[in-house]
Amino acid sequence: MFEKILFATTGSPECDSAARVAFDMARQYGSQLTLFHVLGIPGKGDSNVVIDIRSGEEVDVDAEYIEGVAEELRTTYAKQLEALPGVTIEVGVGVPSREVLRMARTKDVDMIVLCGPAEGQQAGFYKRGVVGDTLRKVAKAARCPVLTVSRPSASFWGGFSNIVFATDFSKASESAFQFAKTVVQAVDGELHLFHCVDLSRFQSPIALTQDGIEAKLAEARRRLHHEYATQLGDFKRFTSEVWEGTPYVEIVKFARERQADLIVLAHHARDVDPDERPFGSTLEQVIVRASCPVVSVNRPDKLPQAAEA
């Protein structure tokens, strides 16, 4: 299903949970796994000096230094590499988000695996440092699905079997649905269609009356059925739910209630001003709080293909 997977890592303990998922995925699906680390942001001109992502210090990069970093990655992931022969290790120099996207294109991967914000970044507004910026830019621009793991509790990987697809009915959500549909049918799992009506978006007093709220909920249920359920054909192992509230809160609660092992949603709606439909920020908040891995999908370019009978 996923022939090629790119795992972008800093090699730090914060990426251990994502590493566990990446290696387990590659093992389960027989995928070709590439381990990728970006050293840092290059200095000006022709200088070999870069600002190391992990330490923030300036280092002089040459072939020997790059090989040293690669060897450090081999040591960090020694047990996983021993259990999964054939893993490729790549080291790059540059702006992390650009290099991850470049490597994904070069390798023509079907999935990018990233580690989410570190433990100390999980306050109400987590710190938007290099890791957060990289995650946001990669998820927004990647042509393939991007899977993110931020919490140790989200690193358990028993395969896909119980998937929540959360939609805001945007164009990008259609690609996310096709991903969820293909995966759940391939593994004969359970799919949970979900939409949260964000009442804060409605300014009209009429919309906020009980009758108005019920009308919005009924409309959303109709759209879930018409736009997604009708595409499932003979597949019957699905549920459909519409809740009201703050989207990222309700998505996480719903996934926990359904004991989901994967959440699938779109990063953003490209045809709508992000300030008008801030689903990108919803994705970030879901990643921080979810107790399972989160996959974001924007485009139909690299969706998994169903296995032929």
TrEMBL record:
Pfam families: Usp. Residues 1-149, 160-297 form the UspA domain. Gene3D superfamilies: HUPs (3.40.50.620). CDD domains: USP-like. It comes from the Bacteria. Belongs to the universal stress protein A family. This is Universal stress protein. It comes from Solidesulfovibrio aerotolerans. The lineage of its organism: Bacteria, Pseudomonadati, Thermodesulfobacteriota, Desulfovibrionia, Desulfovibrionales.
